[in-house]
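Sanity check

After download, print the first record. It should look like this:
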Amino acid sequence: MSDDTLAALAAQEERLVFHRFENETALELGIHLLTAARERLLPVTVSVRRGGQRLFHAALPGTSADNDAWIDRKSRVVDRYGHSSFLIGEQFRARGTTFEADSRLDPDLYAAHGGVFPVIVAGVGPVGTVGVSGLPQADDHAFVVEQLEVFLSAQN
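Expected C-alpha cells:
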C-alpha cells in the first residue's frame, strides 16, 4: 500500500463532510444508497447510524445475517478510530502487519475491512457511520464513497 493511496483515502474523509446530520438526513442517505444498489443489482446490506443508533438498515437479495455482522464489526472500527474501516485496515497493511494481528481488538467484534465510512459533520467531527457489506472490500468502500459524493453534491 502506497503513501499516495493512504493520502487519497484520508482526503476522501476531508472532502465528504455534512453540514448537518439528523434522522431525516440519515433516512435520505440510506434510501439513496439503497436505490443505487438496487439499480445495479448489488447484493449488499446498507446501514446508516448516528451515535449508537441504527437509523437505516436494509438488506437486498443475495445478503445474509453475515452481512449484518460485517457491518457491525466494520462500524465498531470507524467508531473507535474515527476513520473509514478501509483506511484503518490499509494503515495496518502499510506497516507490514494486519489489523487482526496488531490491533489487540477482538476480531469477532472489529473488522478493518472496506465498506463503512464515518459520517463527519463540519465543525463537529465524526457523528456516525454509513456503510455497505456484500461486495469485495475495496468495492464496498468505493460504492459508499461514490454515493456519498453524489448525495452531498445534491445537498449543496
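If your output differs, re-run the checksum step. Summary of this record's structure: DSSP finds six helices and five strands in the chain.
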